[in-house]
Amino acid sequence: MTALARGENRPAPADRLTITVTCSVAVDVSALLLDANGRVRSDGDFVFFNQPVAPGLVYRHGRGAGDMVEVRTSALPADVDKVAITASLDGSGPATFAGVGSLVATIGSDAGTLTFPMDRLSTEAAVVCVEIYRRGGAWKVRAVGQGYDDGLAGLAAAFGVNIDDEPEPAPQPVPPQQPVPASRLAPTQVLSRPPSFVPPPPPVAPTMPNPRAPQGVPSVQSELFHPNHAEVTGVGIQKQGSKMIRVAVNGETLARAGSMVAYQGDLQFKALGSGGIGRAIQQRLTGEGVPLMQVSGRGDLFLANAAADVHTVDLDGTDGLTINGANVLAFDSTLTYNIQRVQGAAGYASNAGFFNCVFTGRGRIAITTHGSPVVLNVDQPTYADPQAAVAWSSSLQTGIKRNDSFGFSRLIGRSTGEGLTLAFSGHGFVIVQPSELPPGGMIGGTGGGQEAGQSGGLLGGLLG
User: Quick count: other Cβ atoms within 10 Å of Cβ 248?
Assistant: First the structure.
């Protein structure tokens, strides 16, 4: 085994190389295919946990033993001049590499092994560990050990990865929503809906007679054959009882990965991670996002999430909906969403602050709550427990109110621990559930990419 010093280069020991990055804290390992200008040719040249394969490259999770990137130099495209292997802090430990005990890159092959221990790091949150580059028709290895203070997002942007690029939503007609006369709504519903939040009329279940066996033989009898349990009708997203939705798919819709409980017709399912490279990076940095699947074709799709209560919200384009990603079940492809910091909450949840998903555009979104919620019309200062506030109008101003009394803090809820509530002002609405269960409990938030299966992240442990 040969140790490399910073800046030193050696001939690549073989065509097939395995670069393993180990660290005393959790890091994300990635690789970039770069052209002669030191830039990616497209976002497909960025290889990481949510996009593990590119020409000549394969990313493999080390399961605690160091993530690996396998490089086959003979399979790299002719216009690729360099492969950069990087490591970035994942946010669960120190904020910079100054607080890291050890960071080592090992280049293994059948012909020998090179190792590069990196030291003298300070304010960097992402580091280029080694480069594999062309020189005179051959491939060489260089020990780099230099990085970026703005982490994975800064590193990716420096090499030309467009972290803000989002796929264009497929055009899909949105059925017009007719306002419901106030006389048909309960008084609390009239008070709790702002102008941009128009509920659809309740679906009417078709009659479904008990099935009859051939030749007049009596069929199975059950209260399950009551019309209340029949499939609802209507286009797009419709509530199917209180715990499920039915989506009449005629083209494409987007839903939480793993939420399908049944479907009829010709439907195809495609995993989207958290919705593109930019969103995957945002989700990794913030812990917030929606692991998505794209459902396309023609048929009826039934979705649910751990028997949580479901509700539909219609956006008319004049205001957005801010919501914890763990509470999103499905939404029309005409809507777009981004991950944004909750105003006024920085520094209370973590060094990165609060984050949530913000949906904008025109279309319908299905959300989940634990229990039947109340929708508060914000026409005066309004406060909510951080774990009970599910979603709110994006136009509202948010902040934190500390509830101290006579010099000592009053605990609010089960997990806030500092006597804090979310404060809302302006004009809009706040959806509050009758529970302080965090995502990952009864309504199970999930992450995307490498972290699929965990709760909704920085805000996910507090809002949902």
Answer: 17
